Amino acid sequence: MSPSLRVLFVEDSDIDAQLVLHQLAHAGYSVNPRRVETEEELRAALVGTDWDLILCDYQLPRFSAPEALRIVREHGLDVPFIVVSGSISADLAVDMMRRGAHDYLIKGDMARFVPAVERELRETATRRAHREAEAARSQAEEARRASEARYREVFQITSDLILCFEIGPGGEPRLRQWNTTAARLLGIEVGPDGDARMPASFSSELAVALKDCAARNTLRSRDLPLTPPGAADAHHFHTTFHPIAEHDGQVSRVFVVGRDVTERKRGEEALRRAHDDLERRVLERTAELTAANARLRELDRLKSEFLATMSHELRTPLNAIIGFTGLVKDEIPGPLNPEQKRQLAMAYSSSKHLLGLINDLLDVSRIEAGGFRLNREAFDFAGVVAEAVGQVRPLAEARRLTLCTEMPPGALPMFGDRRRCLQILINLAHNAVKFTEQGGVDIAVRAAAEEIRIDVTDTGVGIAPAQVSQLFEAFRQFDTSSRRNREGTGLGLYLCRKLLNLMGGDISVESTLGRGSRFSVRLPRNAPTDGPAATTRALPPTP
């Protein structure tokens, strides 16, 4: 690639400029030229362009080479300035060289032109390189002086003590430099022999560490005790030894940097005592909590046993009341008038409702006490769905609601607790009907090889988002603007989740307030073998 050359012609003859360009091109240069004829044009050309070469005719119609050279020097430019003229006397040529021109050439003597240009370009490049090197050296020297000044300042004002020891041929250290902090803390004094002296207690231990560091030529650290002048108690200094080795590997100097860590050690000791005290308190509180938890578990067990006992004791007479009320209601002892039938029906219904509540309480107490047992038997889940729908349908019809089911064809063999599956379905369907004013309830069943999924969807009042997370808690009931005279203890959904968990299934809910809810149940078709079981019967073959 041809070297690029930016050339400024101060020339009134375009032909002469073209002749010079031809010579430069022939010499292998790629020239970017500009020609000016007046002082104004020259001043404009010197701004914004770094010229490699200025070729100036000695005499122009309104301008001259001395004036052009003066302007170039005013701009502080170090650019080869060569006078090229048709004729020039020796005196004028010498005068131009004295003024600062780099060379002068006769236009008719082009043989000297290219060598002269190349010489001046080389010399200019050399001057520039020298200036740049000198500037870099000056900057480096200034940076070194500034760095040394900063080092001296930091050396003196740092709160750490800093000592510099010279290691003699026999390994004996001699203190040569120290900062203000070291002088204050150590009470350093310079003796008649010129050697610095430190407290003997600190000096003896320091000498051992210095010799070890110099012998091993390895960075060392240790804690050293020191009692500063006027202090009652010893201070602890974390001291680091930095060896400086010569080219032969022998340690000639060792820098010692010591930091007063007395407060840190006091803090660490206080923290250790606080930690021990806290650990003791935690152990005491843990023992208290353990005892309290044991007491709470015992109280919870007693509560569950009490509920179970009371539920059992209540169910026995209640079953008798229901049985005898049913006999009378069915007119087995004798005929009844309409008012008697109505009142007996109310008593029978209320007794059945009370029995359901007692059964729920009994189930909860058994589950919480860990004594709940599941039956494991073979049954057809399709029959469970049909039975649940049959029990809930009268309530749906009484409320003028639709009750639809979507089932896969054929039987749905399962192995688990049929009665609890029926309890879950009745509870969900009954809740859906109870909380729906218009529309209806859909029960969709989908069967897979390992599980059955049931979705109970209603168009009822829905559930607020803030209440969804609390929906499956025991005794949790939520009031809505449309809810009036709705019976329940808040145990139904809690029992559903607990029973499903025992059977290896789960339940979830999606709801929009004012638009309805969907409860989704997942049941394994084969109940877990490690769960509670009272009875086990063979699973019938899948049709």
TrEMBL record:
Catalysis performed (reactions): ATP + protein L-histidine = ADP + protein N-phospho-L-histidine
GO molecular function: histidine phosphotransfer kinase activity; phosphorelay sensor kinase activity
Pfam families from the UniProt entry: HATPase_c (PF02518), HisKA (PF00512), PAS_4 (PF08448), Response_reg (PF00072)
PROSITE patterns, sorted: HIS_KIN, PAC, RESPONSE_REGULATORY
Primary enzyme class: transferase
Keyword Ribosomal protein: no
Designated name of the protein: histidine kinase
Organism listed in the record: mine drainage metagenome
